[in-house]
Fold:
Amino acid sequence: MLVVTGATGQLGRLVVESLVKKVPASGIVAAVRNIDKAMDLANLGVQLRHADYSLPETWDEALKGADKLLLISSSELGQRFAQHKTVIEAAKRSGVKLLVYTSVLHADSSSLGLAEEHRATEAFIRASGIPYVLLRNGWYTENYAAGAPSALEHGNVYGCAGAGRISSAARADYAEAAATVLTAENQAGRIYELAGDTHYTLTEFAAEIARQSGKNTGYVNLPESEYKQLLLTVGLPEPVAELLANSDTDASNGALFDESHQLSALIGRPTTPLATTIAEVI
Structure:
């Protein structure tokens, strides 16, 4: 039995959709916070179980009979480690034989602010004694591509990544990698540094938007404080704005760059090109 946490999230849904192409749906459990929002997953034939990162009492039942568990990292900044700890402890009680965790690229050495909670989670997983796999996911191309409509409206892409190169891949690529690991043999102890085959600067990103749209679109590099203020102005919560601005600054120093091609090797095909993801958005 394979259990996927956060299965109604953007990554989780894609993992479940990938899994049902590889193994019988009856052996897949979608662990979700809101059952009503997961009926599309039930229509795929998978089991639905209620499990909330913030409700420890929900996890023992959710993981009952689980052989392998995909722990998709929580999106609640500052609360992630405590929530992950809850799931890991329940996995140990439930006798899970393999725990697969979605961490962040180069978590052990990354300067990204968001890496701290991932490092803490990785350490707790190791200490738990549960056989594990670490999927150190790089940046999702959608993180930037989601801003393409705004860039077209205002004429510019804004950020503070300078000339830093970003090795992103589509969210579906990372989902396929997770499904591959969950259904493969002899994975315990492996650490995958997952990133896109190609890389780009935000100047090149803006140029691709311009090429596809036919509209003049450039990149404006701002000081981190000004970029954060811009994100706050457009309505992002303070923690998210700080995270994105910090991540851009770290990207300027190479934190989102990787050319090991482990992701494409794992999924058996090239990762989704930047141009494809931008086309889907605009």
User: Anything to note?
Assistant: Residues 2-137 form a domain with the Rossmann fold fold (CATH 3.40.50.720).
